[in-house]
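Comment thread on ticket #2218

A.B. wrote:
> Attaching the input chain for the structure job we discussed in standup.
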Amino acid sequence: MAKADVLLEALPYLQAFRGKTFVVKFGGNALANDEARRLILQDIAFLSIAGIRPVLVHGGAPEITRQMSRKGRKPRWVQGLRVTDRQTLEVVERSLRKINHRLVAELKTLGARAQGLKGYEAGLIRAERHTLPGVDLGFVGKVTGVSPGAIQRLLVLGVIPVVVPLASGWDGQWYNVNADYAASALASALKAEKFVLVTDVPGILLKRQDAQSLISTLTIARAKALIRRGTIDSGMIPKTEACIAALRGGARKTHLVDVRTPHALLLEIFTDRGIGTEIVKR
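C.D. wrote:
> Ran it. Output below, let me know if you need it in another format.
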């Protein structure tokens, strides 16, 4: 009966979301945990097999840093952005390609159909050089546009696009784009039903380090107020801003879920209460 109750609770969500597009951003730290990665990929495979259209965008910071260390190179970060000279860009591309191949293979093993896509292919993600006063970030990109045709064609065929967040500039130069912002831009362009950021924190907390103070639902206005107040700080700021940008661009709902909770994606989407923080327009 317990299993039947679970299925019955999920049924209206399965009906409502069938044929809808979900953009899921899978962070580098979560990727590094084999068990967490396996469970999230199971969730994404479930979504696809159930008739929902997931798009997976992945980062790879720990793997990139590990590969740089092997070459005796120390990473530099400015305002959460990895300073990317030409040699670093080569390491980024090689590392993300390796991760992409692994994710595609693992999704296929789970019975789903998947295909890797690089953001710079066919102008999928376009960017310009990201600039900060007095700082040379190198080949770090700021998204200027998205052409989602290749993704939409795969979704119609029931294939999960697995996207590498590297973008192309007007001159053909590749750029390293923050995966949160790349996923947000894709969610906007696809008018996604949901944009989900898989993180390694419970969600947005009213009191730091107090999981009981988890905020279940936020509007854009309240999220911006919490940023100004300092309640949302550090690495949660770009994630929250990515959610706000996706909502303003046309995504219907955005979510922050904790990869440390088994099957966090299914619990957030297919249960009445959810487990993370959702950010909505109003």
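A.B. wrote:
> Thanks. Noting for the ticket: The mean pLDDT is 91.
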